[in-house]
Amino acid sequence: MFVLYKFKQTEGQKMIQQMNLLKDWTDRLIYLQMPESSGRQFRGGILCPACIKIHGRSMDALFPFLYMAKVTGEEKYKKAADELFWWSEYNVIRSDGSMVNDPNNDWRGITVFMVTQLAESLLFFEDLLGGKTRAAARKRLEDSSSYLCNMIDGLKTNVNYYFGCGLALELAGAYLNNDGFRKKGKELIYRSIRYIGDDGLIFGEGKPADFITRKGCRPVDIGYNVEESIPSLVQYSLSTGDEYIKKIAVSVMEAHMDFFLPDGGWDNSFGTRNSKWTYWGSRTSDGCQLAYAALGKERPEFMEVAYRNMMLLKACTRDGLLYGGPMYEEAGEEACVHHTICHAKMLAICSAKGYDIEMPVKSYDFMKKGIRKYICDQVVVVKNQDWYVSCSAVDYHYAPDSTPGGGSIGLLWNRQYGPVLAATMTRYYLLEDANMQIPKSMPIHCQTPGIQRSVGEQAGFSVYDDNAELETMESEGFEKIVVNGHLSSRDSDNAYERFQFTYSVMETCCRITGRTAASHAILTLPVISRKSDEVVRIANEEIKILSEGKWLRIRCQKGRLRIRGEETGNYHREFHPVGGFTYLPVYAELTEDEEIAVELTAGQK
Questions:
Q1: CA geometry: angle at 257 spanning 548 and 326, to 5°?
Q2: How far does Cα 37 stand from its chain's mean position?
Q3: What pairing do the DSSP bridges indicate for beta strands 281-282 and 581-591?
Q4: Global pTM?
Q5: How far does CA 53 lie from the centroid of its chain?
């Protein structure tokens, strides 16, 4: 039976919450580790209950196992680390020193992150490894670092690999006393910082990394930036004492905080790799704490980001596994073990380096009122004390159907209610076979709010319009975003009838106004709601959602507000893996050039 052990609070022990969470995660990973009787191909690997496979990056659990062995003295962690190392050697390491993403996936760029954590493991805990394993680990580090030096310049991939490789080679060079590795690492870091835009956001999460669209957009992904690229930049600066790089890292961290929510979530709704967005970050990256907690003693607001996000990770953990979003478990989905492995590594490194993740005495105001524009003014963020709204008209697509556009609301968030609306892939599919889940809940509909022709989902939808135009203004003391575009098709460049959105962000409510020249269309509002929430029909034009001491009221100022499936008497929730939310499929019917306004208000019971 799997039993969770809890550290007890003792005098001088500050890291109690992160240690208990790490203990929960690592013990569950050991519970899922394949036993010796399973045979050479399986022994030591970590079985994923969601994907029913052993992920190639199971090796990332090496550092947390070794760290727990050090702080608890328990032999089971040393054994788990040793068996995991040899599983990796046998199954995913290749003769040229590279590591493949999975036994049936030949992507070898992932060698970057294997080298990073192997170097950290040897720098901190080589004494815990048996003689044979220690020698093999050192040779693995030498061979794999040489492979990275030879291949990284020709990789032509997303920018997170260049940031990550810079750190990996610095750490490997420090352990192996190899100045060549360290020199190459510095070269990569200084090359990578060229991928920081004037708005402070890292771009390059696309192929090619320096691509520029017709609108001037570059590929930006908040999830990968805050969970991989920025932590690599910060850790490099701290490892080398490079104050110039540290100063750059701080400015970049400040810019990305505009997309952080007070409940610990990150808005990556518009990100180029939003197919892997989960509300707490991204599916196969490590976590923001290795940046924000690392500099948290100098900047309390950074520590608050690290703490609030860690609390969200904890809230999304059940029985020792981190689920891929706030409502995965409620939707009946399993937890992919990949999340737990990566974030356990992150939390263990934080703990080993003394980053005590705590809530600062004075809280930072993440909801400073105003309008901010990013990515050549194609992403707009509006905040006041109660509402956060992001809107995207970017025209870069990492892959077909991966990122919505058309001036869609990316994330609508309320201080009392939490996430209200969240954009997703326009069509869900496994863009990365080994790193995404096929849900049990099918079919999966696009969760992005928008206007679509009611004659068919693909016949014309606002989210497909790459030519939509955004305009921002302040009117009567509140902020407005106005979007103009044309309903478009996902399969062609066809542009149909015009549409317009106006998003008004007021102190007391958020108003979404839509209109279109189409004769028959619907305004879709997939409202985030748990299955346990009570839905109250107040009138034809108004509904109220009651959820765990809070409420959300949705009122249509003209016409009937409908809920898909309501006629059966069952307020059915749908689920989308991107973001990790269940939602109530709300919509209003539109007639030609008739404006409809939907007003959302929220509060506490």
A1: 30
A2: 37
A3: unpaired
A4: 0.95
A5: 22
